[in-house]
Q: What sequence folds into this?
């Protein structure tokens, strides 16, 4: 049997809707794709059974209630759109408020939270500028959201000033540090939950927990990360050896 792409899409939608029906019958709260597929399938069936466009919309609004889906689904799925085949041709059906009206919340998905409000009181808010010197013999690149405090041990700059910060450049970009050439860069505070895991392993946890900053600085000096604020240079070879050992 040869099917057009539209017919294959319809069968895929039906299969997803059947899975949603089975889970709903078993008392499982539906997630976003399951709820969307079930509503869209019922709209397509209503159209196929010669319903009018307005009636198909009403059908879509009567399929599920907020109590039958996961709590966040009504806040994520505000409309369901599907192209249905009516007796007079295909038309787009848009089903608004498919689970009925839901109360607004301050933490609704998609809510824009000002970045400053996400910072704890202990975090410094302003952008700072540091001078960086690459003491290696090759170019070193640092990406936009790398915890700059933990950047390559052969970069010499104020590690304390860089703690809890990343390069203030567009996401996905990077800055190249040429050997021996001083480069001034702006650093912005890490936002959100301010939890740093991985990188060079100097923090590996919440940035603002008591004593973590001091412990990370001590670890950086012990491991050989160059620091303009620390008396006497460290030995970057120590940091490289630790990286090899994992």
A:
């Amino acid at each position: 049997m040869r099917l057009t792409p539209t017919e294959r899409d319809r069968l895929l939608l039906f299969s997803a809707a059947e899975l949603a029906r089975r889970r709903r019958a078993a008392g499982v709260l539906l997630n976003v794709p399951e709820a969307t597929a079930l509503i869209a399938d019922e709209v397509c069936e209503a159209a196929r059974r010669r319903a009018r466009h307005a009636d198909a919309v009403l059908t879509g609004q009567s399929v599920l209630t907020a109590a039958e889906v996961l709590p966040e689904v009504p806040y994520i799925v505000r409309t369901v759109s599907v192209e249905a085949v009516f007796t007079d041709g295909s038309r787009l059906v848009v089903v608004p408020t498919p689970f009925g009206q839901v109360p607004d919340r301050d933490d609704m998905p998609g809510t824009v939270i000002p970045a400053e409000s996400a910072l704890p009181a202990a975090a410094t808010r302003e952008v700072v500028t540091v001078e960086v010197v690459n003491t290696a013999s090759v170019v070193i690149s640092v990406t936009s959201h790398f915890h700059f405090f933990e950047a390559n041990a052969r970069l010499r700059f104020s590690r304390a000033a860089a703690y809890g910060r990343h390069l203030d450049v567009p996401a996905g970009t990077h800055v190249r540090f040429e050997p021996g050439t001083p480069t001034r860069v702006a650093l912005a505070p890490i936002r959100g939950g301010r939890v740093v895991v991985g990188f060079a392993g100097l923090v590996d946890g919440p940035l603002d927990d008591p004593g973590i900053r001091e412990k990370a600085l001590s670890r950086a000096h012990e491991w050989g990360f160059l620091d303009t604020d620390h008396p006497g240079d460290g030995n970057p070879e120590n940091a490289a050896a630790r990286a090899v050992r994992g």
